[in-house]
């Protein structure tokens, strides 16, 4: 049976580009997932394998990152228009470009304590939390006599665009990681904490307020810690919760290190001054630990945060 080629398109999907714009020590973030689909005179590559009309998908990826540097990202629409116009007008065989973009919204982490040297008025200028993300969790156990209440959250996505370093680590023959003195630190916070209330004879905590306060302290500690490792940030977040909430004795975190790699723009004659990053989704570092009030026994199961 003879066959003919039908509709076809190609390009690089899901380019995760993060653009940081620095206005003094106030940083702005644009976080996009950009998919490029090109079509045009592409019969030959399908029929005979001739690549004469094919702009590599790898090039379309590079263009996304280079344009983030060269043109900035004012809006997803404008950025998409720049890209689409570029592909259609610069390559004769390309007749149509479809750019799909998802934009992830971030808001600044607020502080009310006024106790950090990194804080402006009431916001940390380089610390962000993803909008509308987290899921609140709870686990209640009762044996007819005693209560155990665990509470927590997951998918609370946070990012510091500076005040994070990672260096001085062990190096063996397989180590290739470059030491970082100014990197992005981003994670999806999963946490479980345990209330020390166990008996109906005692007054139970105000669950709503405790949750809101624990969340606030986690965010503020993340924003206000000058981090030398995600492990250190984790410990700061945990001890901030334990020290400020007497009703909580124990907190366990599972923190994926969401790596952001600086994109090498040198091949395109562009300098990347800590502005354009590739947000990798996997593999990721996974940093997990419990922080306890001194003298209490650890009860939160080690694998709780993976449930
Ligand atoms: O904060 C970090 N902790 C690590 O243990 C680690 N390991 C790594 O490769 N990068 C990082 N970052």
Automatic annotation (TrEMBL):
Catalytic activity: urate + O2 + H2O = 5-hydroxyisourate + H2O2
Short name of one Pfam family: Uricase
Entry's EC annotation: 1.7.3.3
InterPro entries in the record: Uricase
Organism domain of life: Bacteria
Keyword Amino-acid biosynthesis among record annotations: no
Tagged with keyword Transmembrane: no
Transmembrane stretches, start-end: none
Key words, A-Z: Oxidoreductase, Purine metabolism
Function: Catalyzes the oxidation of uric acid to 5-hydroxyisourate, which is further processed to form (S)-allantoin.
Family as reported in the entry's similarity comment: Belongs to the uricase family.
The name this protein goes by in its record: Uricase
Higher taxonomy: Bacteria, Bacillati, Actinomycetota, Actinomycetes, Kitasatosporales
């Amino acid at each position: 049976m003879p066959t003919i080629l039908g509709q076809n398109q190609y390009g690089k999907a899901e380019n995760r580009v993060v653009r940081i714009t620095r206005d003094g020590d106030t940083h702005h973030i644009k976080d996009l997932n950009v998919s490029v689909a090109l079509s045009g005179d592409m019969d030959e590559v399908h029929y005979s394998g001739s690549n004469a009309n094919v702009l590599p998908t790898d090039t379309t990826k590079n263009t996304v990152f280079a344009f983030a540097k060269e043109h900035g990202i004012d809006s997803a629409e404008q950025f998409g228009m720049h890209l689409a116009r570029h592909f259609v007008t610069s390559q004769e065989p390309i007749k149509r470009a479809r750019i799909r973009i998802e934009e992830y919204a971030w808001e600044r982490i607020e502080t009310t304590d006024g106790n950090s040297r990194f804080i402006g008025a009431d916001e940390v200028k380089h610390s962000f939390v993803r909008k509308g993300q987290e899921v609140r969790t709870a686990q209640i156990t009762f044996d007819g006599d005693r209560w155990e209440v665990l509470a927590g959250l997951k998918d609370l996505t946070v990012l510091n665009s500076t005040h994070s370093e990672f260096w001085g680590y062990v190096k063996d023959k397989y180590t290739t990681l470059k030491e970082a003195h100014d990197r992005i630190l981003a994670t999806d916070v999963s946490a479980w904490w345990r209330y020390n209330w166990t008996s109906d004879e005692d007054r139970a905590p105000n669950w709503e307020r405790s949750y809101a306060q624990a969340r606030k302290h986690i965010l503020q500690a993340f924003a206000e810690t000058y981090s030398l490792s995600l492990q250190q940030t984790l410990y700061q977040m945990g001890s901030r919760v334990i020290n400020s909430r007497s009703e909580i004795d124990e907190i366990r975190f599972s923190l994926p290190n969401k790596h952001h790699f600086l994109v090498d723009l040198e091949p395109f004659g562009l300098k990347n001054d800590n502005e354009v990053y590739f947000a990798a989704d996997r593999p990721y570092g996974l940093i997990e630990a419990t922080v306890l009030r001194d003298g209490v026994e650890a009860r939160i199961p080690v694998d709780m945060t993976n449930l």
